[in-house]
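Exercise 3.2. Students should predict the tertiary structure of the chain below and write it as structure tokens, then compare their answer with the key that follows.

Predict this chain's 3D structure.
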Amino acid sequence: MTGAARFDDRVAIITGSGNSLGREYALELAARGARVVVNDRPEDGGAPRVVQEIVDAGGIAVADEHPAGTPESARATLDTALTRFGRVDIVVTSAAVPPQSPIEDTLEVDVLGAFHLVEAVWPHLVEQGYGRIVTTTSPVALFGSPIEARRNPYATAKGAMVGLSKNLAAVSLRHGIHVNVLAPWGRTRRMSAMPPDELAWMQQHFPPQLVAPVVAWLCHEACTVNGEIIGAAGGRAARLFIGETLGFSSPRLSVEELLDNTAAVLDPEGYRIPRDQDEELALIRQRLGIGGPA
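Answer key:
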């Protein structure tokens, strides 16, 4: 594209934006002209600080300290955007609880916080025929980790964001809305327990400010990406995807046949990437040589 990517007259709600990755998203979008609702927990005190940073740099923002997790809080955050700016165009869900938090806190903030906010904002995006939504997953939810295996609530919560976003994306384009998932690597507060040398390495190679341009790209009106998982780390953006192999078929499938053909089940040669459940079913029917339902 020619010229700078701007967000003039766009309004963005960014949860968890008082610190770490979310703060960088707020600063990036505000620097490009967006009016930003900086949402974070009141006990962190980060939202007012980030708003002040944005204002000092000549941008426009408002702090919102309604904690993520309930329908009431989600509607209150939406009301902040509508009262102050009159609309909402962009939602980025970046709120997360600290490591080792109780499972109920993790699911409330990381899962229900995103779900309820998207649920509250969705009708407004549909009505105006435009919107951009970016949720946050984690590589641990997609690929697993022997370290995070001890903290299953976090991986579970981040996996839920893929399910939420993929299903929204299946219907979003008809309303002019694009929905994507971000899988970032960046030095955050969650890593505070790491040894100092590892923290310094993370900050050197995966600074959070290098994730922010990826978020801004997914939020821009010129971006056509929808229903994707995008990895962001160290100045690199990449597509992460769920594919389907050709597999192994038999009219009288048995355990013995599967044991003999495990390699065929797993062989990635000729894989496909279904856009949604219907396309996946069409691939299954094609490979089985069967028609659709009567």
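Discussion points: Residues 244-294 form one domain. The chain has a mean pLDDT of 92.
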